[in-house]
TrEMBL record:
Function: May be involved in the intracellular transport of sterols or other lipids. May bind cholesterol or other sterols.
Recorded GO MF terms: cholesterol binding; cholesterol transfer activity
Name of the protein in its database record: STAR5 protein
GO biological process: cholesterol import
Organism: Rissa tridactyla
START domain: residues covered: 1-212
PANTHER family in alphabetical order: PROTEIN CBG07384 (PTHR46374), STAR-RELATED LIPID TRANSFER PROTEIN 5 (PTHR46374:SF3)
Keywords, in A-Z order: Lipid transport, Lipid-binding, Transport
InterPro entries: StARD5/6 (IPR043556), START-like_dom_sf (IPR023393), START_lipid-bd_dom (IPR002913)
Highest taxon above the source species: Eukaryota
SUPFAM superfamilies membership: Bet v1-like
Amino acid sequence: PAMDYAVLAEAAAEKMGLYRRDPGGWRGCRRTSEVSVSWRPSAEFAGNAYRGEGIVPASPQDVWECIKPVAGGARTKWDQNVKDFEVVEAISDTVSVCRTTTPSAFMKIISPREFVDVVLIKQYEDGTMLSAATNVEHPLCPPQSNFVRGFNYPCGCFCIPLPGEPDRTQLLSFFQTDLGGYLPQTVVDSFFPASIAAFYSNLTKAVKALKV
């Protein structure tokens, strides 16, 4: 029922707020000019939660334009980890159930995945935009044989305006994903930091292209 999806989405957004306010326990694992990535054991599942933080050289509106979770949005064009993104059911104007498919990755060691999530979009009084998500099941999305079903635990991206710097945006993102299947832990542990660094790098290129 629609109600349950909305409740799950709200809970994921609440968790993101808690993660944002709780900087403790994160251990740095990768740093580039665009992002610093850290991790800590996830409280949600038997893997790790990852945190990416960086400044994107564009306005919050432009950054949001590139990352917002909408059908036909920009993300399938620039995010190498998103092959296809579809809205399965719109629950309200801020909550939807979505299916994301990902291409094979890591020299094909990781085969194509599919994720079904409820996604919530939220705007805060200071202009911060949040997209939060968590895995759900949906009758229109039975598992498909040509994809491994993965699971996103509460995750999200905050686009945070920087006072007095209209052309720079702090992007704070949290990822905790069970890729499913039978992957060696070493593969999983090297995939995520590299993938988050690529996410920030490709996003930076995408916002620059928007401005041209």
